[in-house]
Each structure stands twice: as C-alpha cells, then as structure tokens.
Amino acid sequence: MFGKAIAAEQLQDRIDVAVKRRFADAALSAATAAGASYCDVRVGRYLRQFVITRERNVENIVNTESTGTGVRVIADGAWGFAATQDMTEDAVAEAARQATAIAKANARTQTAKVQLAPTPGVGEVSWRTPIKKNAMEVPIADKVDLLMAVNEAALGAGANFVNSLLFLVNEQKYFASTDGSYIDQDIHRIWAPLTVTAIDKTTGKFRSRDGLSAPMGLGWEYMDGRPEDKFVLSNGLTTYGNSYDMKEDAIAAAQDAQAKLKAPSVKPGKYDLVLDPNHLGLTIHESVGHPLELDRVLGYEANYAGTSFATLDKREEGFKYGSEIVNIFADKVQPGSLGAVGYDDEGVKTKRWDLIKDGILVDYQTIRDQAHILGKNESDGCCYADSWSSVQFQRMANVSLAPGKAKLSPADMIAGVDNGIYISGRGSFSIDQQRYNAQFGGTVFYEIKNGKLGPMIEDVAYQMRTPEFWGACSAICDASDYRMFGSFFDGKGQPSQISAVSHGSSTSRFDGINVINTARSLG
Amino acid sequence: MSILSEAQAKAILDKVVALSTADETSAQLTGGVQGNVRFARNDISTSGIVDDADLAVQVAFGKRVGVATINQFDDASLERVVRRAEDLARLAPENPEYMPLVGKQTYRPTDTYSASTAALTAEARARIAQASIDPCRGRGLVAAGFLEDGHTFFAHANSNGNFGYQQSTGADYTCTVRTEDGRGSGWVGSNVQDIEQFDAANDVQIAMRKAAASVDARALEPGKYTVILEPAAAAGLVSFMMNFFDARSADEGRSFLSKAGGGNKIGEQIMDPRVNIYTDPWHPEVPVLPWDGEGLPRQKAPIIEGGKVANLEYSRYWSAKQGKPETAGWGNIIMEGGTKSTADLIAGTDRGILVTRTWYIRLVDPQTVLLTGLTRDGTFYIENGQLKYPVKNFRFNESPVIMLNNIDELGRAVRVKADEGGTMLLPPMKVRDFTFTSLSDAV
Lengths: 523, 443
Fold this sequence. Notes:
The structure holds 2 protein chains of 2 kinds.
Chain A: H1 2-5, H2 17-33, E1 38-54, E2 57-75, E3 78-84, H3 89-107, E4 123-128, H4 140-156, E5 161-177, E6 181-191, E7 194-200, E8 205-210, E9 230-232, E10 238-240, H5 246-262, E11 269-275, H6 277-289, H7 294-298, H8 312-316, E12 328-331, E13 352-357, E14 360-361, E15 383-384, E16 393-394, E17 398-401, H9 410-415, E18 419-424, E19 429-431, E20 437-440, E21 444-449, E22 452-457, E23 460-465, H10 466-471, E24 473-476, E25 483-492, E26 497-505, E27 508-517
Chain B: H1 6-19, E1 24-40, E2 43-61, E3 64-70, H2 75-91, H3 115-118, H4 122-133, E4 141-158, E5 163-179, E6 185-192, H5 200-213, E7 223-229, H6 231-242, H7 247-252, E8 277-279, E9 301-305, E10 308-309, H8 316-322, E11 333-335, H9 342-347, E12 351-365, E13 370-383, E14 386-390, E15 394-398, H10 400-403, E16 407-410, E17 414-417, E18 423-426, E19 429-439
Parallel strand pairs in B: 7-12, 11-18
Antiparallel strand pairs in B: 1-2, 1-4, 2-3, 4-5, 5-6, 7-19, 8-9, 8-11, 9-10, 12-13, 13-14, 13-15, 15-19, 16-19, 17-18
C-alpha cells in the first residue's frame, strides 16, 4: 500500500518520483482505454505551515498536508475532471475513467470541441524554486522566537495590539500527460504579515497599520532583513525588496498606528499620486493583470469574476491603455516571484512576454485550450490549480510595470510634485466586473506639498477608471527602485481557487487622480 | 473515500485519540463528494467530482498546543499526524489562552441532509447546465453559470469522550446571462439544501429578462438614493458586517461595537427598531451543524433585537475571562423581514433604484464598517412603482450599520448565499439615502 510507503516521511521529505510516475501511468492508460483523446495527471502533495501569534501569545501552530491525484481528460471533444485522495493505482485509474465519463456526458451538450495548442512532451524533467534555505526545515522554536521578538518590539513602541504570522507553502507537484511529459516540481513560498493596532479608549477611535512586507517565492532567507534590500524614504518610511526586517517594520508600524490616531483627515479632491511599489502592485493586479486574462475577455468568467473592458477588438485597434511610458509585461520566471515555476499545470514551459508596449495593448495571458482564439500556436503557460483536487485553469502570471529608462529616484519624483499624496502598502481594494471603475486605499499616506513630503494623513481612497488612470502615469522611477508586491490568496473561478502572484514596479507618479474622504460617523 | 458512516468515522477518531500521548486531544474528520458543472459562452466549460476527506488533530501538553492535518487514513498516516501535532505542541510556548477541551456534550441533530441532493449525478448536472443554456441559444443571449453540489460528513471527537457525527447536503446555482452585444447583463442565484426545490429552467428566465431589460442603461448622477436591495444584493453588506460581532474586539476597543470610554455596545440601539437578527441551528430553511468548532452545542440566540445589540460572539477564553456563560459560535444568520416580495416593494416605491446584486465588497474603515463595492447584473430606476429604465452601475461607499438605520421597509426573508459569505436568511430591503459615489461603465 502506498500509504505505508509515505508513512515515515517527515515534513520536508517528498514522495518518490518513481511512485508518482506509476500513478500517472495508471491514469494515462485508464483514460486512453476509456476513450480519452488527451489526459493529464497531477499527483500533488501540498504542505503548509502557519504560526499565528498575538501580543505575547502563540495562538496556534498548524502543519497541513494534502495528498492526492487530479485527472483531466478530453473525450469526444469535451473536458472532464475527477480527483481522488486515495493513493493507490486502482483509485487513480478509476478517477481517470470517471473523468472520461464526465467528459462524454458534457460532450452531448457541447457545440464547440476543445482545441489544444501544441505543447512538446519534455520527458522526465524537474524544477525547484531557487531558495537558499527551506523554511519548512527551520525549527519551530526559531520561528516562535522571531514572532515573539517582533510582537515585543511593537508593544514597546506603542502598540496596543499586535498580530504577527508566518505562512509557509510547499507545493510538491508531479505532472504527466499523454504528450509525453513527466514533470516534477518543488515550489516554495513565504509570507510574514503583521498588523499593529492602536486605540484611544477615551474617544473610541482605533487605527491599524499593516506590515510592509510582500509574500515572495523565496525561502527563509527572506527573513534576513539585509540592508541592501531596504528602501528608505526621506521621512524614514522603510519598505522592503528581496528580504524583510520584520522587527524593524513592527516598531515603525506601532509608531505609525499611534500617528494615525492623530493624523488629519484628507481633503477630497484631485491629487498627483506617488505610489510605492508595495501599493502599486495591487493596482496593477486589479486593473491590468485581471482584465488581460483571456478567459475573462472571452466570457468564461462572466458569472463570477466577470468579463473585461479590454476586448479583443481593442488589441486589433492598438488600444491606448496608458501613457507612452507604460510598459507592462507578464512572466512566470522572475526569481523570487510568487508566480515563478518551470512549467505550468498543463506542462507548458514558462516564459516572459509583453502585455502593454509603450502604452498600447499588445497581448493577453492564455492557456492551451484558448490560445487558438488569439491566433497563437502556443500557450503562455498560465495554467494553475491550487490543489490536486482542483481543476487547473487560466490564472494570472506575474504582471509587472517595467521601470523607467531614465535615472529617477522616489526623492527626485516627490521633488516635482506640488500637490500630491504618497501612498505605501495595501489597503481596501475593489474593482468592477469589467475592470473599469476601481477604488483603492493604502496602508500609510503622506501629504506632498511643493515638492516636500509632509505629515501623515488619513481616510484616503482614490477612485479611478482604468485607461484614464494609466494614461495619467507621468513618471516611473528607474530600475534601482524596482521591487515586487505580492498577492498570496488571489481568488478566481468556480469553485473558487486561490493562487499567488507577484507584481513588480518602481515608484510611479499618476497626475490628477480623484481622492475621496472615507471618514463616516455612526452617530 | 466517499462518505464515511458514523461507525467508520468514529473508528478513525477513536484511533487518533488512543494514539495520542498528550494531555488532551481533539480531532475533526470531514469529507465528502463535491460535484460541479461550469458553463460559459453557452457551452459547458468544466465539470468534475472531487472526493476528499481531511483529518485535523489538535493536541495539548498543558497549555502547549499543536495542530496537524492529513488526508490519508491508514494506520501509519494516523500515527504520523498525531506525532506531528505532538512535535509541534512540545515546541510551542505555553498559550495562556488555551482552554481545556469541552466535556461530553449532547447534540440535538439538525436536518441538514437531503437524499435527492446526495444522489445527483454527472448527467443530472449536465442537464441543469443544458436547461440554463438552451433558452439563451438563438435568442441573442449568452449564459455563464455554475452549479456546485456536495454531500459531506462531519465528525469530531475528543479525549473527554465527546463525539458528534452528521451528514449535510447543499447545492448552489448561479447564472449570469448577457446579451451577445455585451450591452445587457442579468443574474440569478439559488441556494438549496434539497435539489428538488431548484428548477434551473425557471430560474434562468429571471436572468434572461434582466439581461434583455438592462440594455441601453442611462447614467444617473452619483449621490444618495432610495434603493431596493434584492436579498442577494443585501447579503454582501450584511454578511460582511456580521464578521465584526466578536466580543473580544469590541471589549478591546477595536470594533464598531466598542463604546467610547470602554466596554461594548450590548443593549444599545444601533439600528432601526425593525431590525431583528438571530441565529438558530434548527431553522428549517437554513439548518447548520448542531455544534461549533470547539464542540459546543449551538443554540438559538438573538443578535440584534429591535435594533439593539442583544449578543456578541464570545470565544470560550473570552467568555471565561469576562465571567460570561460559555456559548457556541454562530452557525447561521437569520434576519427577520415582512411579508412582501421584492416586486411588492417595487410597486410601493415612488422613486428609487433596484439593485440585483452587489460585487467586490471590501472594508474601507473598520471604525464604521464602511464598505465599498459595486452594483452589477441588473440595476434599474424605479418610478411610480414600476421599473422605468436600466441605469449604469454604481460604486457605493456605505456602512451596513448606517444602511440598517435607514430602512423604509423589509420584505419576505429568503435563503441566500453572499458571493463571499455563507448561507443566510435575508429579506429584500428598501433603504433610503444609500450612498453611490461614482459611476461604472461595466456591464
């Protein structure tokens, strides 16, 4: 029994590749015998670790493990999918037959047969996130000590409450298909969020300040907090690149949370916004990443996530998505990014490609069964499933704003702004189902007056219409300011699945953006 | 794996408890079969069945706690998950807030199972998709939708001898119908425990009518309007607000239910006196499991009574610390309404806006539960009791607390599932001074 074969494993161990190949071959054979014209198999082992703390307590330490096999087939021109957690060759073969039966049931109502863009079989290959230190192997005591030190530092700096967490993910994914690929991958991600809250009991007012870290496709080395990875503004605000100083950020968060209690409320109106990469990433995600997913454009997500304003005719007519300095690319290869893999979840080798070139819409993100609609003869490699039990579908690649070509620092940029607001960190975010109208908050806001960073302000949110917003992009800092924002739990699809994706950018300026005041009174 | 019987589930859980060397052990075993069919562009796009189960084991040595989960159930895997939880617990510092496990409890079962839903086949799912697509084909309409059904079991046990087991079923259907030219969009949703109560061919007609009627939407100035929120539209706001009824946050001064100067707002009038919200695990339309995550038996309890805060949700630790009786976490939310349908509310409205659905709702300010989001898939101007014309979608910035102070009228409550929330019973509601802050070009 396979169950016994893995029983002695520890958290950092892996299922033997030969065993995974046996399961895969069992499914491929069973599907083919049942009449499938294509089959892919994903044998997955998904490990997660959460360390959850508040103030001086560790609230929970959780290790999760989920193992199973998902089988996807095309039969009679339609898709079918079945998954089982029963790790036996018989069960996997049965899932393949079940998937084929489902495909045949669906084929009876289907008018258009599935067309797959060709993907060469790659034989037996492997890929691993290029981490320096596997976070799963770091002793729990070290993780607890770190978070306790972080919390103590925040409390000492004026926090009334502090929550800090570690989320660690390791996806051990084995993919095989009737195209002749057997791909073994070992994917790692890390996130260290924190939230500090300050309260004024007399007035009942409370304010929180989240950490300014980003989830990354890195190992434990992300927690090193190396000086060269810090980005410091003239007022001392520090954000982070390829490593994170969590304790330093916790102290700053506590001070900021106290400052937020007293900060003046923004006067609504038009402002020039200077957006830190740790904020701008989410705006890129919502207003560029999602609308340029081909499945949304075509209507496959119409019932839930929605469609897109960026319809195919806009690509043909050279739609002006943004100003001429806006160059946005997609990729699944940036080192340290959440989206980086060697091959996607339908066996396609990953790459980088342009979405917006000199402000003009030039391409979308797509997968094997939709590439032909764009006239492409290959997938972009954007297929992903969040579990062995989820059917893979088109998910966002890393979508990033290319840095400016001319030398420009955030300080230089701020010096040119007369009436603006500097925003860092993620806040409230919401966008319509075609990705036109969006509203974003942030973590910290600073007034900019006559080229100088002023005091912290509060109750800021900006409202935008996507093409006007990107059209208002008037300056982008150079590559020395480039860093990645991350979304660890991006939801899409029905049943809803999560995925993790990064968005790189340098600090950027957007002119004349509408800012609203979000303060209300409950009386 | 499929559905484990009570005896099978108990055998696994008993083994887990017996394997543990910790002072206290609790385990939850959940699983089942989830089927789904997804369609778009008037064709089925994906469809599948997932058969899975998960075992979560929590152990404690004194106040040192560890949790591990696994989805394999052979003896070696059970031993591995227990040892892993024990290893974590030994490494964990003491959690002063750890509460000893609940003792042996008695649960009054709730009626959460329907045989017809459990028996749903891939062919039946395909027929539901077909019933949604067929009426749209050839009429210039395009259907996209999703049906997900599940037959699940939930079992839990602990080292104090407590045990519970129950099966549940549910099905959730949503369908968006758009005009081929992309100028109109309508939506319908149906959430049932018993699939016999659902008729896709009937439901899809609602989405089709709204899609056709929403073409050529006119732009109205953003501002404050009287709105009629259909139950699905109200659900997004109300379910979001219900996340903030935690007693500890209120007592700690970081909730809209905190009082200036300290303490919480239990007993205070915070909404219109017609607002009554409660939880009831046995409610025939929205039954839920009779226990909470800690194994405490759920009870019927008021939350908002006559617009006053009647209860907050207490963790076991916080209730002990505050000297309150231990109560289970809430499993469902029921808001009482009147007797009128949405159509009746429209008929009684001189001027207003009908909102079919709300979308992408996010918290802007926890101090006031200010939420932002958008209308979607059927927004219409009402004049003299009739839908006069479609209007462009709006972004709103509104607090459900303020909204529930501005009630004109409540209709008949129905079972509904919020886009990003759980199943609840909620009335359509007519609300004045609802705040729209900008227009959206999205259809």
